[in-house]
Design goal:
- Strand 1 and strand 2 form a beta hairpin.
- Helix 2 packs across helix 3 (55-68), helix 2 (37-50) packs antiparallel against helix 6 and helix 2 packs across helix 9.
- A two-stranded antiparallel ribbon has the order 1-2.
- It is an all-alpha fold and 205 residues long.
- It has a single domain (3-199), classed as Hypothetical protein, domain 2 (Endonuclease III, domain 1, Orthogonal Bundle).
- Helix content is 55%, strand content 3%.
- The protein is built from 10 helices and 2 strands, in the order ββαααααααααα.
- It has helices at residues 20-28, 37-50, 55-68, 74-78, 82-89, 98-118, 121-125, 144-155, 163-173, 186-199; strands at residues 3-5, 11-13.
C-alpha cells in the first residue's frame, strides 16, 4: 500500500507511518519547502552520510551530526582542518566514515563557491523545482533533473552527490512533492513549497 491511515485518522505515505521518528519527519519536514542555505547544506551532507545506510539511522543521529559539524554552518565547516577530522572520527554519535567526513568539509568549501556565484544555494536549486496539479502515484529513485544536478555538482568538485542522493535531497527539501496520492500532507507541503519558490524568485505555475 502506498498510503496508510494511522490510528489518529491521518493518511500518510506508507514509509512515514512508523516508527515515531519517521512519522514526525514525514508529517512536519519531508517535502516542506526549504530555502535556508544552512538546512539545504545539512540535508545534502546527511544524504551523503546515508549512502549505504537507512535514513532512520541518520535521522536518529542528526542532533549528534549537528553538534559535530557546527550546526552545518557552511563557513565554519569549510574551515575545518585535520584536527576536526580526527575529532569527528572519534565521535561515536555520528557515522565515522573518513571519506564522508572529508566530503562534508570539501562540499562546504564548494558550497561557498556556489553561493558566491549564485547568491545562495536556494537560488541554484529552486529553479529546478517541479509543480504538479495532483499528487504522484509512483516515486522514482532518480530523475533527469537529479542526474543533471549531480553532474553539475560533481563538475564543481562536490562529492557524495550521486543522482539518487540528489533526488532524495530534492524530495526532502520540497523541490519536488512526492507525498503520494491520498496522503494528507500533500496539500500543506505543496503550499509551503510554492511559497518558498516564489520567495526566491522562481515562477510558479
Amino acid at each position: 500500500m502506498n498510503v496508510i491511515t494511522g490510528d489518529d485518522g491521518v493518511a500518510r505515505c506508507s514509509w512515514g507511518a512508523e516508527p515515531a521518528d519517521y512519522l514526525d519527519y514525514h508529517d512536519h519536514e519531508w517535502g516542506v519547502g526549504v530555502a535556508d542555505d544552512t538546512r539545504l547544506f545539512e540535508k545534502i551532507c546527511l544524504e551523503g552520510f546515508q549512502s549505504g545506510l537507512s535514513w532512520l539511522t541518520i535521522l536518529r543521529k542528526r542532533d549528534n551530526f549537528r553538534a559535530g559539524f557546527a550546526g552545518f554552518d557552511i563557513e565554519q565547516v569549510a574551515a575545518f582542518g585535520e584536527g576536526d577530522v580526527e575529532r569527528l572520527l572519534a565521535d561515536a554519535g555520528i557515522v565515522r566514515h573518513q571519506g564522508k567526513i572529508r566530503s562534508t568539509i570539501n562540499n562546504a568549501q564548494r558550497a561557498l563557491e556556489l553561493i558566491d556565484e549564485h547568491g545562495s544555494l536556494a537560488a541554484f536549486f529552486w529553479p529546478h523545482a517541479t509543480f504538479l496539479d495532483e499528487p504522484v502515484t509512483e516515486v522514482p529513485a532518480t530523475t533527469d533533473t537529479s542526474t543533471m544536478l549531480s553532474k553539475q555538482l560533481k563538475k564543481r568538485g562536490w562529492s557524495f552527490v550521486g543522482p539518487t542522493t540528489m533526488y532524495a535531497f530534492m524530495q526532502a527539501m520540497g523541490v519536488v512533492n512526492d507525498h503520494m496520492a491520498g496522503c494528507d500532507c500533500w496539500e500543506s507541503a505543496e503550499r509551503s513549497r510554492r511559497a518558498v519558490a516564489a520567495g526566491v524568485g522562481v515562477t510558479v505555475p
